[in-house]
Specification:
The chain is an alpha/beta fold. Helices cover about 40% and strands about 15% of the residues. It is built from 16 helices and 15 strands. The protein is globular, with a radius of gyration of 27 Å. The N and C termini lie far apart (about 65 Å).
């Protein structure tokens, strides 16, 4: 075995600006070089002093990197003999991968993945899922961050007090496994809240607490969809639902959306015997239209005839600026075919990870059982704090403040678009929600504008990435809830320039 000391001066490219710490960049490179055969068993590595000098890092950084690799079994460290590559590794044929880089993810596969049907279906979607669902979130929210509430306006001290209250008083009595359906007082509070505000007909026994709305969608897909089942999907629609449904093996039938909501007649013509329909009737995502009563009744009639399920995602309907929120589709359902999904991420903050679903009684038992063997139940402290947040009126007060704020920010966005963009961007003014859609002239590529906007520090989503059908014209989906009015105005000026240049 080679015993000569190897120099790493020119071989480890460090990036001080990376979010990955320097000692992890070093250990990743050495680990990969060992596995690829570039560093052989028994090969001596520089001392921590020498390595620190060669790489321009502190000795503590170099020592920490070596300690991690030693603990993992990649290195041997002997007093008087220095640091060497461990002898427990067999001779490895170097892989044709080129020189590894510090920015490569640790989970990079050395061999082709052998996935299950679910994993394979998920892998096939990676290229079609819009980047806004997958990208790492920046430290500072940028205009026009989609789906993000005003995080700087949430009453964090109050929330911390509620968490601390239950950590001191309640946690010792609640530290055992809890009901898989969720904390009973929270389910009661949710049932009372949505009965009054959304017209949902349910009791606490029909409410299942989940780790966000996405967890509810995934659970529903696993329970109700078999491979090659056809599912109606609003088009354009929510890509997070695509992922859950296609991951379960469904074949999506993209049903067009008009000013009246999903076109039920088109769905009947496309796939009359579909297994399930995913809809956002109160505030369609992303177009923002509200499903008219005629379409609601037609959708319910189809579900009864086809014995199909309807998943109603009510993600941000409480942010309605003109009158009361539109009542939920679930309240019209006499055949018990609607599963209602809600979330607290849009009113509180996304990291709270508390959502819920309201399932018909016949389905509820299986939903609870599925959650028991998937995640058992969400963390209990947050559930207890949210119960108080609802019961003590904090939720309603915060929601009222946010409605006023978001109405002002929406008005600022519309004013800026009219002033800066003129006829370049046509906006349908929604009466609810946290975003608008700006329609481009036919032939103007929304994906190119979105790409260039990202390079300019904006977060703009191309409407075409949310559609499985070719759109007559592209559009830009612009969130405004998390943007200050100054950021909105500056962002629109950049957008106007890009639209002129690209168009």
């Amino acid at each position: 075995m080679p015993q000569s000391q190897v120099s790493l001066r020119e071989r480890i490219p460090l990036d001080p600006a990376s979010s990955v710490s320097l000692h992890r960049q070093i250990s990743r490179w050495v680990r990969r070089a060992i596995l690829d055969g570039q560093l052989q068993p028994g090969q001596r590595l520089p001392s921590t002093r020498t390595l620190a000098s060669e790489l321009g890092v502190s000795r503590n950084t170099a020592s920490t990197a070596y300690e991690h690799l030693h603990a993992e079994g990649y290195l041997e460290r002997t007093v008087g003999s220095g640091t060497k590559v461990a002898h427990c590794f067999p001779e490895l044929r170097p892989l044709d991968r080129g020189t590894p880089h510090a920015h490569e993810p640790e989970h990079t596969a050395l061999v082709p993945l052998d996935l299950s049907a679910y994993g394979s279906a998920l892998a096939e979607q990676v290229g079609s899922i819009p980047s806004f669902l997958l990208q790492r979130r920046p430290e500072r929210s940028r205009a026009f961050h989609l789906g993000m509430p005003a995080l700087d306006r949430f009453p964090y001290p109050l929330w911390a007090q509620l968490i601390a209250r239950h950590a001191r008083r309640s946690l010792p009595q609640q530290a055992d496994y809890q009901e898989s359906a969720g904390y009973r007082p929270l389910r009661e509070a949710i049932a009372a809240h949505i009965a009054v505000t959304r017209g949902v007909r349910c009791r606490a026994d029909h409410v299942l607490i989940t780790a966000g709305a996405q967890a509810a969608l995934d659970l529903i897909a696993r329970l109700l969809v078999d491979r090659d089942d056809i599912v109606w999907m609003e088009d354009p629609g929510y890509p997070g639902a695509w992922a859950a449904l296609e991951g379960a093996g469904a074949r999506l039938a993209p049903v067009p959306v008009s000013a009246a909501g999903i076109e039920v007649a088109a769905g009947r013509a496309l796939a009359p015997q579909a297994r399930l329909a995913f809809v956002t009737p109160s505030h369609q995502f992303p177009l923002g239209v509200t499903m008219k009563l005629e379409q609601r009744l037609a959708l319910l009639q189809w579900a009864r005839e086809a014995r199909a399920w309807i998943v109603e995602d009510d993600y941000d309907s409480e942010y309605r600026f003109d009158g009361r929120p539109v009542e939920a589709l679930q309240g019209l359902d006499s055949a018990l075919r609607v599963i209602y999904v809600g979330t607290f991420s849009k009113v509180l903050f996304p990291a709270v990870r508390i959502g819920y679903m309201v399932a018909p009684p016949a389905l509820m038992e299986m939903c609870v059982l599925a959650q028991r063997f998937q995640s058992f139940h969400p963390p209990i402290l947050e559930q207890m704090a949210l119960t108080d947040f609802l019961a003590e009126g904090h939720y309603a007060r915060h929601l009222r403040r946010m409605r006023v704020l978001y109405a002002a920010r929406q008005a600022a966005l519309l004013t800026a678009i009219r002033r800066e963009c003129g006829q370049l961007l046509e906006v349908d003014v929604p009466q609810a929600g946290m975003h608008v859609v700006g329609w481009l002239h036919p032939g103007v590529p929304d994906t190119e504008i979105a790409r260039q906007a990202t390079e300019q520090g904006l977060e703009v989503v191309a409407l075409s990435t949310m559609s499985r059908r070719p759109l007559r014209r592209g559009g830009l989906v612009l969130g405004y809830a998390a943007c200050s009015e100054a950021d909105i105005q500056a962002g629109v000026r950049i957008l106007a320039r890009l639209v002129r240049e690209v168009g």
